[in-house]
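User: Fold this one for me? It's Vacuolar protein sorting-associated protein 16 homolog.
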Amino acid sequence: MTFITANWNPLGEAFYRKSELYEMCWNLRDGLRDCLVAAAPYGGPIALLREPVRRSPSSRPQLEIYSASGVSIASFPWKSGPVVHLGWTRHFSMGQEVVQSQVLEAKVFHSPYGTGVAIVTGSSRFIMATNIDDLKLRRLPEVPGLQGKPSCWVVLNQDRQTKVLLSTGSELYILDNTSCTAVSLPGLAPQGGSIVHMSVSFSYKYLAVLTDSGHLWTGPSHLQDKMSEVDTKKLTPPKQMVWCRRPKSQQPSVVLMWDRLLMVVGVCQDTIQFPTEDQCVLVGEMDGVRIISSTNQELLQEVPLVCQEIFKIASMAPGALLLEAHREYEKSSQKADEYLREIKEQSMLGEAVSQCIEAAGHEYDPNTQKSLMRAASFGKCFLTDFSPGQFVTTCRELRVLNSVRESSVGLPLTHTQFKQMTLQVLIDRLVYRQFYPLAIEMCRYLKIPDYQGVSRVLKHWASCKVQQKDLSDEAIARAMCAKVGDSPGVSYSDIAAKAYECGRTELAIKLLDFEARSGEQVPLLLKMKRSQLALSKAVESGDTDLVYTVVTYLKNEMNRGDFFMTLRNQPVALSLYRQFCKLQEQETLKDLYNQDDDHKELANYYVTASYREKRLESRLSLLQSAVDEYNKAKNEFSAKATEEEMRLLRFQRKLDDEKGAGLLELSLQATMEALLALGLYKQAEQLYRDFRVPDKRYWWLKLKSLAEKEEWDELEKFSKSKKSPIGYLAFVEVCMKSNNKYEAKKYVSKVTPEQRVKAHLAISDLDGAADAAIERKNDSEIATVLSRCSAADRLLIERLNRASTAKK
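Assistant: Here's what I get for Vacuolar protein sorting-associated protein 16 homolog.
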């Protein structure tokens, strides 16, 4: 424990420690002098621009990107204008207004609304964008008397608004969207002097202000209160000033850096001073400050309270006792039992285990972590109701953190930062740095669902893989199939789209062969101008909507001849397109049939088209074309039927002209019915003979027509004209339907014996029906007559019963 506390420095009631994170892997000949440096928060990468001021036609500044451990990630010459500030954001542009203005200073900041940028222009105006993802530039009000850039300024977040706090000598102003307001620092000593430096905390809740007399004022950023004022006894402005505090901090502090001195100033008036041998850069984090030099990187932070309680000399905290008990247990000493008894007597064993687990999360050294976690494991063996969840989770998280803290990866995350950043963001960082095996192993170890973990990593890996120009298309496709396989959430079409964007069309087609969803394959194939392959894929899918999509695209992109030839090679697509044309594009359908020499379908088209014509001549012309095509197709039946249709139309037109009968467009049967209804019997007879209408149909038509008109004499004459092909029961039934029993009786005697019972029953002649049934000795007919008898027909019933008995 003495070793652990060796680098602790007291500051008020708390302690601060400086832990080495890395020996930097870079080789900077001149160190960090004459460099602009920007390190991303949460252990992010470092951007370094060498000699930004020295610009000549033959030499350009080199922008270099390193991991936090100094491993080179990228390097490229800076080809744009002079750089005034370096910061980490997404790619964006502030537009021509800013380009045309001279930028004196700039700051990148992070607010609840996103990453923002504020600049000071050559006209001493502030322009701000609070969220670069939704870029809206705001020109802030003018500052009275400001010439050039202010002596110092910071960006604040107050009352859900982003504001600028600036100093011009001893004057202090706050700029918001509409106003410039003069403010003062509560409790600042009169001898404070002009403000030369300002710094806002990582959370934007606290502000530190340094004056030219060396007084450091700290307080809340809303400027309503004062935390402390400390005389640093330094009259030269520091190169950097950064807040150093952690969540639930006991003793927040401000870190100031001069050429060879690092000073930690606490709100308790105490200070800690560290000599520095090299040019350094301070990077504020949510729970400390990273100190980057050309040789190493350190983390300065307040020692967490739980670590203080465990590791302080002579500490009697439960966690400290449990750690000591475990050490004695490993020595096989009975003192272990004494320490455990002491903890149990205070009923603090559960708290001791929790303290060790929590402290392990805050420690950076793996050996210290192991000691604490083993002590926690030792302690929970004596507890019956202790939930293992916290222990298991911390073990897993520490294993993850230790793996990403390795120098080869270079992500020096603390446990507090990891919790704030979330696991998903950490995986994203590994993916963007192309640490795919580590990211996949981490996802599997933490049992993250595939669509959030492994599949997402594989998708990014595949998108990068297709950009490797040194590998052949075949090799990349095989690697994709082997690695990705059927991983859920990975779309081969998305990977193929990336390959196509990179100019690798053949690779994109190979990758699309692995895509199971045709709906994803086809749009990309069309985009790549592989229309015939897209059509084949659409047909194979069995999705008619997809086929229609491709066909529509081909129709718009190809000339008509090529389009039709393409469809001829795909019968399914051709059939679907014909169905579409039948409903939407009749003329195109005709062209299709002509192209294919499909005489039968072309004839059918002419027949269908004839019904849409109003003029008889046009209709007959189309029907004649249909006859010609049917003959070419050797379809004699259809040709003859069409010719008869033409004859019928001409006959109807002739009668319409002569009699005004209104027969046009009626069917043959309807025409005959109309003629019979109009009394044009000769014309009806002519149609009957000319079109060889079956006798039974004609007799039925005329029978019904005469009965409906009640022309009974004509009906009787018609029945005697020749032997009825439909029999005479029909005459009886039609007469009875018209309620003419008298006429019906005339035809009963002509009915065949087999139907005579029905005829007598139709006219309600039970006696005649009984005679006919008895004469035929038919049980079924006798039973039918009996069913129609009532109680009053007792004699008839007896007669029928005797006849039935006698037959048996």
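One thing worth pointing out: The first helix runs from residue 96 to 100.
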